[in-house]
Amino acid sequence: TLTADAATPDAGDPADSPLVRAARGLAVPHTPVWFMRQAGRSLPEYLEVRDGVPMLEACRTPDLVVEITLQPVRRHGVDAAIFFSDIVVPLAAVGVDLDIVPGTGPVVAQPFRTRADLDRLPALAPDAVEDVAESTRRLVAGLGGTPLIGFAGAPFTLASYLVEGGPSRHHEHTKALMHGDPELWHDLCARLAQVSGTFLRIQAEAGASAVQLFDSWAGALSRADYRAFVQPHSAAALSAVADLGIPRIHFGVGTGELLTDMGAAGADVVGVDFRVSLADAAARLGPSYAVQGNLDPALLFAPWDVIEAEVARILAEGRAARGHVFNLGHGVLPATDPAVLTRVTELVHRLTEHPA
Ligand code: 1CP
Fold first, then answer.
1. pTM of the shown model
2. Of the residues 37, 43, 46, which should be mutated to test ligand 1's pocket, given the most ligand atoms within 8 Å of the CB?
3. By CB neighbour count within 10 A (0-12 exposed, 13-18 middle, 19+ buried), where does 59 fall?
4. How close is the Cα of 86 to the center of ligand 1, in Å?
5. Which residue positions does UniProt flag as site: Transition state stabilizer (predicted)?
6. Where are the strands (E) in the chain, listed by range?
7. How far apart are CA 258 and CA 172, in angstroms?
8. CATH of the domain at 170
9. Which of 225, 238, 98, 102 is closest to 162 using CA atoms?
10. Per-residue pLDDT for 130 more than 70?
11. Which of 31, 121, 205, 242 is the most buried (most CB within 10 A)?
12. Per DSSP, what are the bridge partners of residue 249?
C-alpha cells in the first residue's frame, strides 16, 4: 500500500499551523496558501494514478485518496492538504444513483422534483463512509504538522445537482422548486444539511484540522432568496462541527453580496472569489472573520510578472482582514501549469516572511 509520506514531514502541531492560526486571526510566520482543487486536475502524477479508475471509485479507495491528497503537498509545499473526494460522494453513499462523468461533472440518473423523491434521500450514517474516516486518519498520521481540510458541499449546491440532474448554468428547476414548493424545498435541504454536516463531522472527528463548506453556486441567488431558502440549511450543516472547535471555511462563487450572510451561517473564514477585492470583503465582513482567496485562476495563464503583481496586491488587500488564507478565487483550471502553482506558493511565503 501507499504510505502517507508528505514531502515536508514537519513535526509541528497542525492545530497551531499557519492555516489554523490565520483562520483564528492569530499572528502567522507566513501567510498560509493552498489551492482549491489542488489535488487532481493538472498534476501528471494524479493522471497517472487515476488512469482507468472512475472518479467515484477513486474517492472510495483509501490508498488512492491518501496518495492523491498528498501529491500537491509534496509538489508545491502548500500549507494545507484538502481531502480528495467530491461533493457528491456522500449522496452516492446514501444511495442516490449518480455518476461523475469525465468532462461534465456529476450526473444524477433521476432528478429530484417531487415529494416522493425524498424517499431516495435517506440520512447519511457514518458507517456508510467508513473508508472516508480511514483515509482521513491515515492522512492525518502522514501529514505531521500540515493541516488537513475536510469538506462537503452545501445544501443549495448539492440540491442544484439533484434537482437539475447535473451541472446547470441557470439553476432554473432548482429555483422553480424553491419558490413553487417552499415546503418541499426546505425538507430537501434539511436532508442535505444532515448529509453534509455528517460528512464534515466524520472528517473532523477523524482528525481534520479545518473544514470547508462549498456552496459553489450560491452566487446564483439574490440575497433575499439566500437568506430565506439557503442560509438556515448551510448553518445547520456547519453547526454539525461547531462543538469540535476547528475553523470552518465557507466558500461560494459570485457571492460578493452574500459574504456577511455566509459568515453569519457559522464560519470563521469566508471564501472570496476574484470579483471582490479582499479589502472590500474585509470591510463588509467586519473584524470577526478571516478571509480566503482570491487570485483569478485564469490569471495563472498570464505572464509571471502579472501574476507576481496580482499576488502582491491580494496580500496587501488581505491585510485589512482579521486573517488571510491565500487561495484562488475558484478551483485550479485543468490546463494550469503545475510549476506556476509551486511558484505562487513560494512567492506568497517569501513576500509574507519578509514583509516590506
Ligand atoms: O483538490 C481537490 O481536487 C480536492 C477534491 C475535490 C473537491 C474539493 C474534487 C475532486 N471536487 C471537489 C469539490 C466540488 N465538486 C465542487 C466544489 C468546488 C468547486 O466549486 O470547485 C463542485 C461544484 C464539484 C462538482 C464537480 N465534480 C464538478 C463541477 C461540475 C460543474 O457543475 O461545473 C466536476 C467537474 C467534478 C468532478 C471532479 N471532482 C474532483 C475532481 C478531481 C474531478 C474531475 C475528475 C474526473 O472527471 O475524472
1. 0.95
2. 37
3. buried
4. 6
5. 86
6. 81-82, 98-101, 105-108, 148-153, 210-214, 248-251, 269-271, 290-295, 324-328
7. 20
8. 3.20.20.210
9. 98
10. yes
11. 31
12. 212, 269
Could you give the number of structural domains in the chain? 1
pLDDT tens per residue, range 162-194: 999 999 999 999 999 999 999 999 999 999 999
CA of 87 to the centre of ligand 1 (A): 7
**Lookup result for grid cell 503537498:** 73
Cell 501529491 sits on residue: 71
Catalytic residue among 24, 37, 60, 74: 37
8 Å CB contact between 34 and 327: yes
The answer to whether residue 179 sits within a structural domain is yes
Give the structural domain span for 29. 14-353
**Model-level ipTM above the cut of 0.85:** yes
CB distance 151 to ligand 1 below 6 Å: yes
Q: Is residue 147 part of a domain?
A: yes
Q: Which residue has a Cα nearest atom 33 of ligand 1?
A: 167
